[in-house]
Amino acid sequence: MRKVACFLLLALILLSGCVQVPIQRTEAKDVKIELKVDTTNIQAGGKVGVSIIVENYADFEIRNITARIYGLPDWKGELEKIENYSGILYPETGFEFNWQLEAPSDVKYKKYYQVFADVKYNAYNKKRVMITGISYDYYKRTGSGSGITSSSSLGGPIEIDFVPYQSQLIAYEDKLPFKFAVVISNKGRGKPCADYFTLNCSKEKLNKVLFNFTKETSGIEITCEKGGEVNLIKSGSYAHFDCIGNLTNVKEVSTQIIEFLVNYTYMETLTSPSIGVEPVLL
Fold first, then answer.
1. Which ranges of 143-239 would DSSP assign to H, the alpha helix?
2. Domain-wise residue ranges, the chain
3. Going by fewer Cβ within 10 Å, which terminus of the chain is more open, N or C?
4. Which residues contact 186 (CB under 8 A, 6 or more apart)?
5. Residue 21 clears pLDDT 80, i.e. is over it
């Protein structure tokens, strides 16, 4: 089993034992996983190379990647065994798992097989939310705007968005109440689970993520309807809940910052094209 991590900055350098994995930044901040076979038609007893390529186009690091291939009865090779990459897959880097498998030698007629694969990895997404409130007197004097904005996404399969309920945040007293919705959505083709540290993805943790927030400034009070393990409904599609709070001691302009963090293990199941195995003609 050969496992390789190739960085973009080294993509043009040929190193002994390094399988070049092309990585080129795209507009989509995504994690791309491909299952490939080097042939789809062989004779009985022939060999097939199988590859799983993980490419990180997101703006976060991927950790603890595992891969397993299965679904080939009577084939020889490292089937069912879980392979691990314990390194860190930084943005704009790729990693490749490789297997060499041997088809059954006693095939009497042409048979078709498919390779199935499970891939898991640890990932996260985070955003900073800026809540700006202004006093009524300041608003009357300047006409300045206020409201809730957020930083850009780090990408990946799990997205986090914020929907404010108020278009303006104007304080008529020292405390200024606010409210916004948090939407966590699964935009990938796999499933999240809240077994972030173990990668087990047990049934109880499936379709869940770990949600938390940290106040970066002191002039704010906030509570959210959910925290810790958050269930994504519709078979892991999305979660929707509210956060409410107050900006405290708003004299003229008050901008408060909160960082929201979602940790998760993500798992994808992949299927190869059909591989035709023909009997050897004597």
1. 233-236
2. 2-122+268-278, 123-266
3. C
4. 157, 158, 159, 192, 232, 236, 237, 238
5. no
| Residue (of 148, 140, 127, 10) closest to 59 by Cα position | 127
Q: Taking the CA atoms of the chain, what radius of gyration do you get in angstroms?
A: 25
pLDDT at 14 over 90: no
Backbone angles phi, psi at 12, to 5 degrees: -95, 5
Q: Are 46 and 71 in contact (CB under 8 A)?
A: no
Say if residues 224 and 242 touch (Cβ distance below 8 Å): yes
- The pTM (predicted TM-score) of the whole model is 0.86
Task: Assess contact for 5 and 240: CB atoms under 8 A.
Answer: no
Task: State the Cα–Cα distance between residues 64 and 62, nearest whole angstrom.
Answer: 7
Q: Do domains 2-122+268-278 and 123-266 have the same CATH topology?
A: yes
Instruction: State residue 152's pLDDT score.
Output: 94
Amino acid type, 261: L
C-beta of residue 250 within 8 angstroms of C-beta of residue 133: yes
DSSP 64: E
- What's the CATH class of domain 123-266? mainly beta
Contact (CB, 8 A) for 50 and 36: yes
Rounded to an integer, what distance in angstroms lies between the CA atom of residue 253 and that of residue 255? 7
Lookup: tokens for 51: 């590859």
By the 8 A CB rule, do 90 and 70 touch? Answer: no
Alpha helices in the chain (DSSP H): 136-142, 233-236
User: pLDDT digit string (tens) for 118-159?
Assistant: 999 999 999 999 999 999 999 999 988 889 999 999 999 999
User: What SS3 class is residue 59?
Assistant: coil
The CA distance from 154 to 186, in Å, is 14
